Amino acid sequence: MSNLMSLQAALNARATVPAGEAANAPGRRGCPLSDLRDRLRRAGLRPTRQRLSLGWLLFGRGDRHLTAEMLYDEAMRAKVPVSLATVYNTLHQFTEAGLLRQLALDGSKAYFDTNPSEHHHFFLEEEGQVLDMPDCGITVDSLPDAPEGMEIAGVEVIVRLRRRAASRNKA
Ligand SMILES: [Zn+2]
After folding, report:
1. I want to staple 99 with a disulfide (CB 3.0 to 4.6 A). Which of 70, 94, 105, 139 is the partner?
2. With contact defined as beta carbons under 8 Å apart, do 87 and 68 qualify?
């Protein structure tokens, strides 16, 4: 019982912290929303309300990988009034503008990466989970010659994972 009480106390204490912390948070130095507006403009996209709302959800949480359905769920939870079709369109516009990178991981679902630079991934197929590989994770040093008249534009490696039987049974 006393453990429960102290957990409650800890949660309450934590709840009061962010207000004080927020003033010192790095995001507060510039205005994140106007940064996003600039970023969209620089990419050649008009910063509409929908693009700003979805961009806010997408880029506000660091590097991550998500499908249109995942972003749509987040938008619903954040009470952003968009349709799934708008989410798809926006993700494709962001990708064409170079703000996102589309990953070819799974034929049935498109994953989008908020870090558009070239990097490699782990893909946990059963759970549809995508992880960035550490920088030193892989070296690709013997590539075939590109066909006549072509050059290699990039190399992306996907290492497919599955949980070991023991940890699968535990879960
Ligand atoms: Zn990634």
Report:
1. 94
2. yes
What distance in angstroms lies between residue 140's CA and the mean position of ligand 1's atoms? 17
The model's pTM: 0.73
From the CA of 52, how far away is ligand 1's center (Å)? 22
Domain-embedded: residue 16: no
Place of tokens 């507060």: 28
Asked if the structure places residue 25 within a domain, the reply is no
- Provide the domain limits for residue 94: 30-115
Q: What letter represents residue 155's amino acid?
A: V
Q: Residue 45: how many CB atoms within 10 A of its CB? A: 17
Q: What is the pLDDT along the chain (171 residues), one digit of tens a residue?
A: 444 444 344 334 443 333 434 444 444 456 888 999 999 999 999 999 999 999 999 999 889 999 999 999 999 999 999 999 999 999 999 999 999 999 988 777 899 999 998 889 999 988 889 999 887 767 778 888 999 999 988 888 899 999 998 766 655
Q: Which two tokens stand for residue 139?
A: 């070296």
H helices of 26-81, in order, are 32-42, 49-59, 68-77
Domain count, the chain: 2
Q: What is the Å distance from ligand 1's center to 118 Cα?
A: 8
